[in-house]
Amino acid sequence: MPQLWQGRASKAVDSRVNDFNSSIRFDARMIEQDIRGSLVHSAMLGAQGIISAQDVEDIHKGLHSILDDLHSGALEIDPTAEDVHTFVEQTLTARVGDAGKRLHTGRSRNDQVALDIRLYLRDAAATLQKEIKDLIDAICRKAEESAGYVMPGYTHLQRAQPVSFGHQLMAYAWMLLRDLGRMQDAVRRMDAECPLGSGALAGTTYPLDRFYTARELGFAAPCHNSIDGVSDRDFCIELCAAMATCMMHLSRLSEEVILWCSWEFRFVELDDAFTTGSSIMPQKKNPDVTELIRGKTGRVYGDLNTLLVMMKGIPLAYDKDMQEDKEAIFDAVDTLDLCLRTLTPMLATMTPRPENMRKAAAHGFINATDCADYLTKKGMPFRDAYKCTGTMVAACIREGKTLEEMSLEEFQRYSPLFEKDVYEAIDLTRCCEGRTSYGGPTRASVLSQIADVRAALAQ
Ligand code: ARG
After folding, report:
1. How far out from the chain centre does Cα 216 lie?
2. Does the active-site annotation cover 65?
3. 318 lines ligand 1 (CB under 6 A)
């Protein structure tokens, strides 16, 4: 396919430059968005009397026939085309003749590509948001079932205080809800300003109606500075940052699933359909999905870095460096999409093992804070109670037992404040259920968190 810009040069472009320069192999995925922009641009040109009504009709007929072929699978995308914009314009001209050549009036590929990426990312972000909602929904269901399963909560990966498995899971639901919000914010800003009509950088002498195109393409307004319109990719960076943050959350959750399904923890059992085996070790059941998510998180961080570094030193307005935006942002979209689509059914089919959580909770002195709080409530200053309990824990470790295995006489050797009700105070379920502060791990709190998250999703 010849370049759109033939005319000035005295010879054909070296084939190596052509291959190097071409973006069709990765920007062809924006073909529907490119056609959508052209349908609106040409309608506006017609309404403004810049091209004739007949031209608009021919252009629309041609563009729709390309769309039809795309949907039926009959459209062959020329791999030698310079980019998707070239391909669509030349295919159109081959089908409808001169009207096709009038499509690019008052437009540049610079404002065209700035539009296409926005339209593509708007659609992609809608899909991702739906997938994040599905994951949050799966987490809420799992948390509902496990709201009363006591497990050790950890700090430094050391058993710390009792929580419920539902509470631990819901922590991720809140993180993902914020990811959703970040994505919505990014899309709102992306949809605020339409770049079409910025031209190459300096607008155009044609009487374009930029407000019409902005409205028809779903933007709040045309962008207010034509140089800005073609120059920035902050919308890619912002969305990519939201995706990288979401991947970070998926990766942490994955890491926990990997720990939980190990023989050391055995807090959950993964469904066989979501695990893999080993070619040599017959006993293995590996959590590859979650490991891949953890691994792929680095890719998305890399995509974000690619975009940030690509943009930091280029002068206004458009520079060809910016063609590198697409592979990075598309990779981030594809990766997050793949991870979300796999993680959700994996979590949904995961079976919690409350008996093992409970066993782990019984060891590791996760009720030591509650023992200290017991003494504090009986009048001992907290710092003294902390020290006293620490001494008791050290003695229990020496003797190989837990706090609740101590006799009342033993307790009273450390402080006369201990009475029979200490056993109740350090009972694991009570320790968890006693933490009634707002946002705590009680069953009631988990259930109300689930209701709140669901209400937020329904909005
Ligand atoms: N393929 C180009 C890109 O993705 C389209 C814009 C080309 N503009 C130009 N003046 N060469 O950035």
Report:
1. 28
2. no
3. yes
**Residue 279 confidence (pLDDT):** 84
Helices (H), 24-164: 24-27, 31-47, 53-72, 84-96, 98-102, 109-145
Q: Which of 71, 224, 262, 278 is catalytic?
A: 278
Amino acid at 269: E
User: Which tens digits make up the pLDDT trace of 387-433?
Assistant: 999 999 999 999 999 999 999 999 999 999 999 999 999 999 999 99
Instruction: Considering the domain delimited by 359-447, tell me its CATH architecture.
Output: Orthogonal Bundle (1.10)
Amino acid at 416: P
pTM for the structure as a whole = 0.94
Q: Which residues of the chain have pLDDT under 50?
A: none
Distance of CA 258 to the CA centre of its chain: 20
Give, as one character, the DSSP assignment of residue 314.
P
- Whether 278 is catalytic is yes
**pLDDT tens digit string along 270-299?**
999 999 888 888 888 899 999 999 999 999
**157 Rama sector, left if φ>0, alpha if ψ -120 to 50, beta otherwise:** left
* Distance in angstroms (rounded) separating the CA atoms of residues 64 and 316: 35
232 sits in the region (left: phi over 0; alpha: psi -120 to 50; else beta) called beta
Task: Specify the CATH class of 15-105 in words.
Answer: mainly alpha
For 110-146+161-196+224-355, CATH number out of 3.90.190.10, 1.20.200.10, 1.10.10.10, 3.90.230.10 equals: 1.20.200.10
Cβ of 322 below 6 Å from ligand 1: yes
Q: Is 113 in the pocket of ligand 1 (CB under 6 A)?
A: yes
CA dist 68 and 342 (Å) reads 32
Residue closest to 311 by CA, chosen among 299, 330, 328, 297: 328
